[in-house]
Amino acid sequence: MQATLLSFLGLALLGALHAQGDAPVQADFQEERFTGTWYSIGLASNSNWFKDKKPLMKMCTTVVSATADGNLEVTSTYPKADRCETKSSLYMKTEQPGRFSYSSPRWGSKHDIRVVETNYEEYALVATRIAKNGGTSTMVLLYSRTKELSPERLERFTQFSKEQGLADEDILILPKTGKSTREEQ
């Protein structure tokens, strides 16, 4: 009986660990409604680069555009020192709508990107599993169509980040800045 109970608990724990970090994808994802301008309101990650850069990070503007072949061009503009910097990435579509892949030529990493939930008009929650040098890390982004979001959306971001195995110190609500927004350039 005790061995059966321990076996059951072990399987339950294994199932919980497997579920952790296996983010769902928005049902009936509509790419055309996801495109446009977003503000990065929250960022959570357990990667080393995030821990190093966290104190310097600020809200940025991200523009998502659909390509002719159904991929997404994602361009983020963010403040860096006394200037604005822009980074573009091409998210390749997969068989599952709302799920994309990206390979970073600069860092040699592979990204599994999932639009977890969005109402398209107000917010989007995006989870990314990053594989590099045999290790993995998790990143969760909270996008908003405006520079403000309700406390309920911020709490949902925090809750979801924790469900992905991230700790409180891995979660950041990004400070606002007047720089590096698309309309100000």
Q: What is the number of beta strands?
A: 9
CATH class: Mainly Beta
The number of helical runs is 4
Q: Main sheet, how many strands, which sense, barrel? A: 8 strands, antiparallel, barrel
- In the CATH hierarchy, what is the superfamily? Calycin beta-barrel core domain
Determine the strand fraction and express it as a percent band.
35-45%
Number of self-contained structural domains: 1
**Overall average residue pLDDT:** 85
CATH topology: Lipocalin
Specify the overall morphology.
Answer: globular
Detailed description of the structure:
The chain has four helices and nine strands; from the N terminus they run ααβαβββββββαβ. With 185 residues, it is α+β, with helices and mostly antiparallel strands. The chain has a single domain, classed as Beta Barrel (Lipocalin). It has an eight-stranded antiparallel beta barrel. Strand 5 and strand 6 form a beta hairpin. The model is unreliable at 1-20 and 179-185 (pLDDT under 50).
What secondary-structure arrangement, pairings included, does this model have?
Layout: H1 2-19, H2 31-34, E1 36-45, H3 48-53, E2 61-66, E3 72-80, E4 83-93, E5 99-104, E6 109-118, E7 123-132, E8 135-144, H4 151-163, E9 171-173
Antiparallel strand pairs: 1-2, 1-8, 1-9, 2-3, 3-4, 4-5, 5-6, 6-7, 7-8
Summed up, what is this model?
This is Prostaglandin-H2 D-isomerase. InterPro entries: Calycin (IPR012674), Lipocalin (IPR002345), Lipocalin_CS (IPR022272), Lipocln_cytosolic_FA-bd_dom (IPR000566). Helices cover 22% and strands 41% of the residues.
